[in-house]
Amino acid sequence: MAHRRARGRIDNVHVAYIAVAAAMVTLAAYIPMFPVIGAGTTISAGMIVVPLVGILLGPTAGTLATAIGAFLGQIVAPYGAIFGLITFVCPTTCTLVAGLLAYRKWKTAIIVQGLTILAWYALTSIMWRGQPAAGVRWYFPFLHWASFISILIVGRKISDWISSGDTRKMAIAIFLTALAGTLSEHMVGNSIYIGLYQGPAQVYVFVLSIYWIERTFGALAATFVGVPLLVGLRKARIDVGPWALLPKSSK
Amino acid sequence: MSLVHYYPGKSLFHRLDPRVKMVWLVCMFVLAFAFNHPLHLSILLAIVLALWVHMRIPYSELKLFFKALTVVAILTFIFQLLFYPGEHVLVSYSVPRWIPYLGGTSAITLEGLINGIAMALRLFVIVLTMPAVTMSTSIEQLVIGLVKSGMPYEVAFSFTTALNLLPVLQGDAAKTIEAQKARAFTAIERGSLIQRLKAFAPLIVPLMVGALKKGRQLEIAMESRAFGAYKRRTYLIEIKMRKLDWLFLATMLGGTILCLALRITMGFGVFRL
Q1: Running DSSP on this structure, what letter comes out for residue A243?
Q2: Positive or negative: CA dihedral B212, B217, B218, B224
Q3: Is A9 helix (H, G, I), strand (E, B) or coil?
Q4: What CA–CA distance (Å, rounded) separates B222 from B245?
Q5: Among A30-39, A159-168, A208-217, B235-244, whose mean pLDDT is lowest?
Q6: How does DSSP assign A68-120, residue by residue?
Q7: What's the whole-model pTM score?
Q8: Domain span at residue A105?
Q9: If you write DSSP's letter for every residue of B175-211 in order, what string do you get?
Q10: What are the pLDDT digits (tens) for A124-180?
Q11: Interface test with A, best of B142, B149, B208 (most A CBs within 10 A)
Q12: In-domain check, residue A2
């Protein structure tokens, strides 16, 4: 299905699905999930919806849906868009990585995730020069590395596991996909923050103690929602998701 | 979810072509990123605020933004003040290394103070420029501007459809929450962290399945109307670049390029002690 060009479709996903997914992304950003300790803010359900859009619509249509949804969000409610015009890039990266993993493009997903980690090291080595806490940059992305290595090992199986119908395999695959996506988003956000607002190293000593909890819980929440969602969609015969690639007989 | 509204008006900025406003947005972003001198960033902020006044945007809107940004701006300022390395010491102190997060810091420097002010100003410039465009341009005009700038029609269609679907999905979300609460669903408020995370499934799954079903209905409706059958489309609203737009565009681009050239060659807009 992925490469057939059809009228009104992008990567063979009808624009109607892209539009509803985009609206979901915009809306989810305003459904609070849990508070961020000490920041006076909340993590939104966007953390659940954004990787799932990648799993459902794939790397092209899904990424486009998230880009539209997040851009729309920053236009209609720009109060929290602290990166201004480029705020939408962060969630878009999450959907891209999740979509690539779910749609058998795991090598490209590894490259994208690797590039986000590389950007972190490159940027912090320039921006944090002379800062006493700059050493934090070496071990800060420990969870990103763990996710990167896990994708390197099981990345090729993720798409099959998502389409398998076996809820355990689906749960593992969705968790790894959501984690890789959300961590790539995290790295892009960090890089923009450091580049734009010269975020100092000391701040990341604090962030280090909470980000891995926040991101792991986000990926877990995406798994708790993603498994019943994918099972439900298959039962409702809504043909979006990597299984739509399978021949009719095996669906 | 409080949304930014379009405020119709007859100001010069209101009358500009949406494409020109988008270029203005990019120019302001680039300049805010290029400058790190508080004076230059203050000038940019003054331009944005003057534009808000010129467009007669109610003060209450600006207050909402300041309310939302103040905490982030103060944090940004404090981070720079405490942690930015510098040589011109203003206040000297000693925090023992064993104190978490602050341990090892020893001085507030002039560089830190100036950079803190600059970054807080940059935050306001970057966040306040976008609503200036959205409050002076209707979504229809904005989308036509994007289409005329080369965005494929399918993407523009998704954009407007998503916007129109927002209130519908918002209503669905409220109904789902009410329906679950009527069934004594309290895990999301009272349960343990894992229970709370699991509790999102009965809220988000029906919402997403419902949304995708709407997508299927929309697909059928669009196909029955032969969506995309014609390559050339006509629009209810037509936009055209006028003399005023070209003049504004040339001034803006010229100014931005000049500032960037001066920034690279002479360090214009860069703070140095």
Answers
A1: G
A2: positive
A3: strand
A4: 36
A5: A30-39
A6: HHHHHHHHH-GGG-TTGGGTTHHHHHHHHHHHHHHTT-HHHHHHHHHHHHHHH
A7: 0.89
A8: 9-250
A9: HHHHHHHHTT--HHHHS-HHHHHHHTHHHHHHHHHHH
A10: 999 998 888 889 999 999 999 999 999 999 999 999 999 888 999 999 999 999 999
A11: B208
A12: no
A133 Cβ contact list (under 8 Å, min separation 6):
A200, A201, A202, A204, A205, B83, B104
Count residue pairs from A and B with Cβ separation < 8 A.
220
b/e B43-68 (16+ beta carbons within 10 angstroms → b)? ebbeebeebbeebebeeeeeeebeeb
B173 interfaces chain A, CB cutoff of 8 Å: yes
**DSSP 8-state code for residue B87:** S
Closest to A193 measured CA to CA, from B126, B169, B25, B82: B126
The DSSP secondary-structure symbol of A216 reads H
pLDDT score, position B134: 87
Query: Cα–chain-centroid distance for residue A170?
Result: 17
Tell me the residues of chain A between 151 and 190 that have a Cβ less than 8 Å away from chain B: none
Q: Which two tokens stand for residue A250?
A: 């095996």
Q: What percent of chain B has pLDDT over 70?
A: 96
Specify the pLDDT at position A3: 46
- What is the average per-residue pLDDT within B154-176? 88
Separation CA A112–CA B41 (nearest Å): 34
Q: Is residue A108 part of a domain?
A: yes
A57: how many CB neighbours lie within 10 A of its CB?
A: 28
- Please indicate if any CB of chain A lies within 8 Å of the CB of B2: yes
Tell me how many domains chain A contains: 1
Distance CA B253, CA B30 (A): 11
**Residues 6 or more apart in contact with residue A177 via CB below 8 angstroms:** A51, A54, A55, A97, A98, A101, A102, A158, A162
Residue type at position B46: A
CB A177 within 8 A of CB B57: no
Asked if residue A120 belongs to a domain, the reply is yes
Which amino acid does the sequence have at A213? I
- For residues B32 and B12, give the distance between their C-alpha atoms in angstroms, rounded to a whole number: 23
In this structure, is residue A1 part of a structural domain? no
Residues of B within 8 A of A134 (CB-CB) are none
- Chain B interface mutation, best of A24, A50, A175, highest count of B Cβ atoms under 10 Å: A24
By CB atoms closer than 10 A (0-12, 13-18, 19+), residue B94 is exposed
Nearest Cα to Cα of residue B11 among B244, B251, B249, B250: B244
Residue with tokens 């993407």: B155
